[in-house]
Amino acid sequence: MKIxxxxxxGQVGTVLRRALTAAGHxxxxxxxxxxxxGERAWDGRTPGAWTAEIDGSDVVINLAGRSVSCRYTPxxxxxxMDSRVESARVVGEAIAAAARPPALxxxxxxxxxxxxxxxxxNDEATGEIGGSEPGVPGYWSxxxxxxxxxxxxxxxxxTPHTRTVALRSAMVMSPDRGGVFDVLSRLARLGLGGPxxxxxxxxxxxxxxxxxxxxxxxxxxEDLTGxxxxxxxxxxxxxxxxxxxxxxxxxxxxxxxxxWMAEVGAFALRSDTELLLKSRRVVPGRLLAEGFSxxxxxxxxxxxxxxxxxxxxxxx
Length: 316
Fold this sequence. Notes:
Layout: E1 2-6, H1 11-22, E2 26-31, E3 39-41, H2 51-54, E4 59-62, H3 74-97, E5 104-108, H4 140-156, E6 163-169, E7 171-173, H5 180-189, E8 202-203, E9 205-207, H6 208-220, E10 226-230, E11 236-237, H7 238-249, H8 259-268, H9 274-277, H10 285-289, H11 299-315
Parallel strand pairs: 1-2, 1-4, 2-3, 4-5, 5-6, 6-10, 7-9
Antiparallel strand pairs: 8-11
Helix pairs in contact: 3-4, 5-7, 7-11
């Protein structure tokens, strides 16, 4: 198959490109700064020569959007919104204009669309969309607005010959340098990976191999459309999540952090405390109902596998 991945140069795109290429597919990445074979230039906003790659392709997987690992200033929030909405819109326009449109458009979304909660998990059927929770910072609702606006562009697109799926993805854990697993592992190895603000907030995650397998499953299942949660079936509180990660690295102690300490740490990392404090309790209802089987459903085992791979890569 020919698979086009707009915005495919980040961590998730690297994971997909590597796996799909190894599986024998032709993979074309659309990038603002193309730097090698298989990469084509685009600006993420306007049609151009890149649309020829979509015409005649089999699958488009749109991952484009400014990284959420930043301070949530008004300017950055606007950039996150604009980059997602504009890229989804122009991808939809390219598919609509194609003489031979792709059979499938997988549009990246986020598990952050669901409400901050501790009492019950969010699946696609019964999960609550966030944005109006009491007792949380007001700007958290903007992340939900970004997610809903992102998905709305897919719903609005005039693509009757192309099946569409919104990938409501949890954090994709891979041993690649610079990814979320690498950052959390660095904190754990330094002894800083303890509970944050009590650690009761849930962490939703997915092992990179299961993320790729879920994408392949969705490509093969021609009957599935709409939002699909890409998350392991066992989210867990942050204190347990970091305890298992420390154990995988052989670090016995992790210093706890209060909310204000998390603010300082997030500032130092040029990130935002929403990524640490929002309770994301998300489960893959549709994948499980359709028969998808996770290779890494539980975090302690998944963390152990990722740590072993990270150690091998550091030695090579």
